[in-house]
Amino acid sequence: MNKPVLLAVDDDPQVLAAVRRDLRSRYRNSYTVLSAESGAEALATAKELKSRGDALAMLISDQRMPGMLGVEVLARSREVYPLARRVLLTAYSDIEAAVRAINEAHLDHYLSKPWNPPEERLFPVIDDLLDAWQAESLPEAKGLRLVGHQWATRSHAIKDFLASNLVPYRWLDVERDPDARALLDAAGIGADALPALFIEDGSVLANPEPRQVAERLGRPLSAAFDVYDLVVVGAGPAGLAAAVYGASEGLRTLLLDRHAPGGQAGSSSRIENYLGFPAGVSGSELTRRALAQAQRLGAEFLAPLEVTGVSADGGYKRLTLSDGGELVTRTMLAATGMVYREYTAPGVAEHTGAGVYYGAATTEGPVFSGRRVLVVGGGNSAGQGAMYLARYAKEVDIVVRRESLRETMSQYLIEQVDKTPNIRLRPRTEIASIEGEGRVERVTLRSVDDGSCRTEEADAVFIFIGTRPRSDWLPAEVLRDAKGFVLTGRDLMAAEAFPRTWKEPREPLLLETSVPGVFAAGDVRAGAMNRVASAVGEGSMVVRLAHAYLALT
Ligand SMILES: Cc1cc2nc3c(=O)[nH]c(=O)nc-3n(C[C@H](O)[C@H](O)[C@H](O)COP(=O)(O)OP(=O)(O)OC[C@H]3O[C@@H](n4cnc5c(N)ncnc54)[C@H](O)[C@@H]3O)c2cc1C
Fold first, then answer.
1. With a 6 A CB cut-off, is 530 part of the ligand 1 pocket?
2. pLDDT tens, 404-453?
3. Which of 69, 219, 368, 386 has its CA 20 to 30 A from that of 316?
4. Does the pLDDT value for residue 141 go beyond 60?
5. Closest ligand 1 atom number to CA of residue 259
6. Average pLDDT, the chain
7. Is the CB of residue 282 less than 8 Å from the CB of residue 267?
């Protein structure tokens, strides 16, 4: 396999020589640096690389070039190398144009010329982008391969587990991919043992549970200590932030998640409004960075591991775990967020994992290349899901009960959806039923105005409807509102049961629940803002409050 390529494009020979020189000085051992003098030449080079089976890691293009502007070169290169990182070189006067082009060209970064000294202004950016690229793409020969039936719930579960845990793998559909059959025959694995995960060292896991996969990949599954200062339950943005601050501020911190790091945000294909990421950031990239940061600072992370109950025992909290184990901690954060509500039309439950998916657009999207899919829901998560699916699917229909998306989706997403030719809105419509033999084949849509029905062919339905808090694992003493969201701080004092539950001679701290030393942050909390930034803010605040609680005990 050849080294992955970094391709630089500029019509100015001096600038091109400078980019080439700087890139080679640092990356030549791991990457091949190529250059092109025009957009057309760069696109032709990209196509040639593709036909040779080489990997393109990054395209760096100047903006002002005769014939084709840099943003167009970058946008068009997506058709050939969708995963390559894209960097625009701009003069100061072009920055506004570069910012405007972020959506169109899917820019990962724009760099102002000149970039001296490269150690400060060029290499940190390129290092970061190449790390992200490497995390997403692994040379096929080296990586994990998962062989299974596309329409099997078990296959979806393992795919989702690997993708959410940021483990790159190659999916081989046993019905479509000739390599799949050859691999199974060579390993003597029958159709009843699928999915099968082929590991780099030549070993195979047949029809594994997510926990077995985690174990096989060398992930720790049990806690290193008997007692912690802070156990964070749930590794979405709130939990990850708490782990970063807890570990950096001297608390022995354990973070755990029933599934994978990232939470709802981890399933987002592009978070556009998180501070400091002008080009947006994918949920998986934000998760990868946050988890690395928490672990570097000393937080321990375990997944998949579910907390099934909590009890207060003097100043300590005792947590029961899904693997039968127990943990003891002085403070605890419930950061268990929300989960999509089940859609209850006939055929939905039977096809879940076999063409019906809750969220999961980023896990399953590529499989639906050239097919027809429906997205149910009108919120931002549905909008992002539709945009992501539209990269692959032939047609994406957004099914909503309301007349329009105006009241439920952010304006920037409505504009993106409007501009995407293969997305169509189906207003005042709901799913009446889903049919198909072992997979989704047809969907019956019903008008909410007159009840008339219409059956259409479709290959998948992605559901992004209302959510419910994940708070049912908490004991009754942790007071909640009528919808199940956890009450904290002063909000608790209005609850009828508060005087019976709270026995401390002080008021609860800001994000403290009705059990002293148990905190709640993020979407699971009553009054949460349901944003990545607010979850991160609350998770960070909890660490100060945990210190305050520990000082009182
Ligand atoms: C598709 C999508 C796109 C979005 N886009 C944006 C956006 O662009 N901008 C924005 O600001 N917001 C966005 N949001 C909202 C944002 O992601 C959420 O507000 C945020 O993730 C909430 O963070 P959290 O940490 O509170 O909870 P969550 O993200 O819900 O994480 C909770 C975690 O807890 C774990 N867990 C649950 N129960 C247990 C248990 N008993 N034991 C162990 N672990 C458990 C879950 O597995 C999960 O990982 C989006 C949401 C979705 C679904």
1. yes
2. 999 999 999 999 999 999 999 999 999 999 999 999 999 999 999 999 99
3. 219
4. no
5. 47
6. 93
7. no
**Closest residue to atom 13 of ligand 1, CA basis:** 531
User: Where is pLDDT greater, at 520 or 150?
Assistant: 520
pLDDT on residue 244: 98
> Which pLDDT belongs to residue 166?
87
Is 337's C-beta closer than 6 angstroms to any atom of ligand 1?
A: yes
| The token pair that represents 261 in the structure block | 């790091």
**Among 221, 255, 264, 274, residue to substitute to test ligand 1 (most atoms within 8 Å of Cβ):** 264
- Rounded to whole angstroms, the maximal C-alpha distance in the chain is 77
- Angle (CA) 437-441-446 rounded to 5° is 120
Give the Å distance between the CA of 337 and the centre of ligand 1. 5
Preceding omega of 114 cis (within 30 degrees of 0):
yes
Angle, CA of 75, 76 and 79, to the nearest 5°: 110
Is the CB of 420 within 6 Å of ligand 1?
no
CA neighbours within 13 Å on the CB side: how many for 325?
A: 13
Residue 331's nearest CA partner among 344, 343, 348, 319 is 319
What's the pTM?
0.86
Residue 74 has pLDDT above 80, yes or no: yes
- Please name every residue paired with 61 in a beta bridge, in sequence order, or none if there are none: 9, 88
Report whether the peptide linkage leading into residue 195 is cis, meaning its omega lies within 30 degrees of zero. Answer: yes
97 touches 71 (CB < 8 A): yes
- Grade residue 302 by pLDDT with cuts at 50, 70 and 90: very high
Measured from the Cβ of residue 291, the count of other Cβ atoms closer than 10 Å reads 24
Distance CA 546, CA 315 (A): 13
359 lines ligand 1 (CB under 6 A): yes
Q: Mean pLDDT across the stretch 259-264?
A: 96
* Calpha distance 521→512 (Å, rounded): 9
Nearest 5°: the CA angle 163, 286, 198 is: 20
Q: 470-508 b/e with 16+ CB inside 10 Å = b?
A: bbebbeebbbbbeeebbbbbebbeebeeeeeebeeeeeb
Ligand 1 centroid to Cα of residue 455, in Å, is 34
- 150-165 burial code (b ≥16 CB/10 A, e <16): bbbeebbbbbbbbbbb
Would the pLDDT of 101 be above 80? no
Residue 547, burial from CB neighbour count under 10 angstroms (0-12, 13-18, 19+): middle
pLDDT at 366: 86
